[in-house]
Design goal:
alpha/beta; four-stranded mixed sheet; 275 residues
Length: 275
């Protein structure tokens, strides 16, 4: 039995199945998905159906593209640029899929394996204990009758720095942005949203979040996706970058958590649609 962590699939179903063949994946194994299961790739519906069908063999965290799909489902946004998501919204099992998706967490951890996974990372200003608490705040709302209202308030870049005085929808928006959109950050925890390039493209006063010294060490090694431009290169033993740009024609990456061995599947470039 093995546990594998897999980077952003983004609708690349064929490549996911090819990667699983490479892993010799079987019913005894477990998969961790780093979020952004959908969007940009052509087979998002197939990806959702397959991963949902894995049941307890799959553990997922929500990424920003997954949350955007949920916002479309709940009618909280009417963005018409998401052609790759339309098959899901037209599917006969749409409600069942969306009910499953909104019950996925923002953070998962395994003390035995020594790993914690979020889509974009955990900012240096939070301990693991606090990160778990803040993730649960958002997860509770996502699974509640207030989900539609949450999605109506989810979009936006402000506030952009953590404070214990931030509350209400602004607090939930900021927590969500740290877990699902973070790339560059300042030493005081301020997020910068305009940059998505390589680490050396950080705006003045900001750095890649994983390069900023933590206020206190995490007890577990971090797994994250979200940042394809890194191509898995972080030069930091405490974090593992799993998004290697499959949807852009690069690779889909998996790491076996039991012994830290990497596996990669070559991918085809997709006609993409930005969200």
């Amino acid at each position: 039995m093995a546990t594998y962590a897999i980077g952003d699939v983004q609708g690349c179903y064929d490549e996911l199945r090819q990667l699983l063949d490479l892993l010799n994946f079987n019913e005894q194994d477990h998969l961790w998905f780093a979020g952004d299961l959908v969007n940009r790739g052509r087979q998002s519906l197939d990806v959702l159906r397959f991963i949902k069908g894995l049941g307890s063999q799959a553990t997922c965290v929500l990424g920003n593209h997954d949350l955007h799909l949920l916002a479309l489902h709940f009618g909280a946004t009417r963005d018409k640029r998401n052609q790759t998501l339309q098959p899901i919204l037209n599917a006969p099992d749409r409600t069942e899929l969306m009910e499953w998706l909104r019950r996925q967490p923002l953070l998962v951890s395994n003390e035995r394996l020594g790993y914690v996974m979020t889509h974009a990372g955990i900012p240096h200003i939070w301990s693991l204990e606090k990160a778990k608490k803040y993730a649960q705040e958002v997860e509770q709302v996502l699974r509640s009758k207030d989900a539609t209202e949450f999605f109506r308030h989810m979009y936006g870049n402000k506030p952009d720095v953590w404070s214990k005085n931030v509350d209400g929808w602004a607090r939930l928006r900021l927590i969500t942005n740290y877990f699902t959109r973070m790339r560059f950050i300042s030493t005081n925890g301020r997020l910068e949203f305009s940059g998505n390039g390589t680490p050396d493209s950080a705006p003045p006063g900001f750095a890649p979040w994983y390069q900023v010294p933590r206020d206190q060490p995490l007890e577990q090694r971090q797994l994250f996706g979200h940042w394809a431009a890194l191509m898995g290169n972080v030069n930091n033993a405490a974090v593992v970058a799993l998004d290697t740009g499959c949807v852009w024609g690069n690779k889909l990456t998996a790491m076996r958590l039991d012994d830290h061995v990497f596996f990669q599947q070559d991918c085809s470039a997709y006609q993409t649609h930005q969200a």
